[in-house]
Amino acid sequence: MKKMVLSLLVDNTSGVLSRVAGLFSRRGYNIDSLTVGVTENPQYSRMTVAVRGDDRILSQIKKQLLKLEDVFSITELKDGESVCRELLLVKIKASLEERQQIISMADVFRANVVDVAKESLMIEITGNVNKIGAFIDLLDGFEIEEMVRTGLTGLIRGNVKPE
Fold first, then answer.
1. 38-43 — which CB contacts under 8 Å span 24+ positions?
2. Using one digit for the tens of pLDDT, what is the confidence trace for 32-65?
3. 18, 46, 64, 142: least surrounded by Cβ within 10 Å?
């Protein structure tokens, strides 16, 4: 199974997210990651959708998305031709002795401590999927109380022409 990340420029109106998500669910396709936000022009939103499938399924997804009247353009965000990032917030149970170790790990990953409580730390880290995964792996042995990821978002690089 191949992974594909699509950047969709869509109308910034109610119901667009539902129509795009409905297209996937009606056809039995799973969405690995979905983020949506308004663009520099408030008339449009940008959706970043990460999906998996064989070449036939991925081609079909692009064709079906282009048929939706709310979708103006689709750009595939390919490795090396785009910049994709994700945000992770993680609350870790930490004794006084464990705090410095966790803070040192966060520093290596250029993560930030955004909250300190009596028995926990909250870390914020931004990066590509591999960086986020590596940081989570390093937390093995610590008790993660809560964790949330934003999902992937990205843009095509300046020197690459969109499809």
1. 38/12, 39/9, 39/12, 42/12, 43/11, 43/12
2. 999 999 999 999 999 999 999 899 999 999 999 9
3. 18
